[in-house]
Amino acid sequence: MTELSISVAAAEFGRDMEACYATVGSLIEQAQQRGSRLLVLPEACLGGYLPSLGGGGESEEAKQRRLRSLPPALTLDGPELRRIAAMAGELVVTLGFCEADGDLRYNAAVTLTGDGVLGSYRKVHQPLGENLCYAAGSEYRAFDTPVGRMGMQICYDKAFPEAARALALDGAEIITSLSAWPTARTATTERLEDDRWTQRFDIFDRARAVENQVVWVASNQAGTFGSLRFVCSAKIVGPGGDLLATTGTEPGLATATVDVDHALELARGGGMYNLRDRRPELYHSVVARHGVVGQPAVPEELEAIHA
Question: pTM to 2 decimals?
């Protein structure tokens, strides 16, 4: 049995890149001091998130102002991620950023060490207005790392059980969920603990962990940016849905030590091994297109769910 120390952050990031590097560097140093081998940082921690989620009745002036205030667009092989890799050394670090691909921009995540990039991901599910700034990603794929086989997703992805299930079926033992998850827009509360979206965030994290029997590591932004106020609540959840460590509704770094192999064996070794006991031949409507639930899935969708 090999124990793995994992750290996850709830921290504030804005447009000032030097401030972002300083915050990332401080969190890396704290994680290293705690003996962690994996550190998970928030969505959009290099250059910050969007100042608002537009759409609906947004005026043209507001739209143009929002488009002018996007985070810097970076590349996987650019100097910005190389700078983070140099800080990371042997520590496995997962973080979010805005990725450039020609004229397209993606809300993206990357896992790296001092040796370079281990895996990358482009956000698939987009909340209202995010599609006005970013293109959508198109796949979920697990990848091997020095701390085990991992998968990544970003924020709104956690609301879709299929996203985490796809990664678990691809062998992910640890799934990192990076967020810039804000408070509710309506029926707002002063205390973050009472906020509806804080509670929803926490429910999704524990549900995705237990239904896939994986170690779930959820980071989040903290503080405010533009019109958004973030709920913090970074956490590590075991494959039985047990909360191993959390920052609560405050900024900070949560750390837990997990024997991943043993934890997975305990969760999956009894009578309920969710991945084994699936009945994919009955799930066609799960991948049917919106509004046509009774319509059979197209061949590529069936292939994906039977994989």
Answer: 0.91
- Pick the closest to residue 210 from 271, 276, 267, 150 (CA basis): 267
Give me the sign of the Cα torsion angle 254, 258, 261, 267.
negative
In order of their start, the domains of the chain are 4-274 (3.60.110.10), 277-307 (no CATH)
pLDDT digit of tens for each residue in the chain (307 aa)?
A: 589 999 999 999 999 999 999 999 999 999 999 999 999 999 999 999 988 776 556 677 776 776 777 899 999 999 999 999 999 999 999 999 999 999 999 999 999 999 999 999 999 999 988 888 899 999 999 999 999 999 999 999 999 999 999 999 999 999 999 999 999 988 888 899 999 999 999 999 999 999 999 999 999 999 999 889 999 999 999 999 999 999 999 999 999 999 999 999 999 987 889 999 999 999 988 888 775 544 444 434 333 333 3
Antiparallel, parallel or unpaired: β 174-178 and 215-218: parallel
Query: Which are the contacts of 248, defined by CB distance < 8 A and separation ≥ 6?
Result: 193, 232, 233
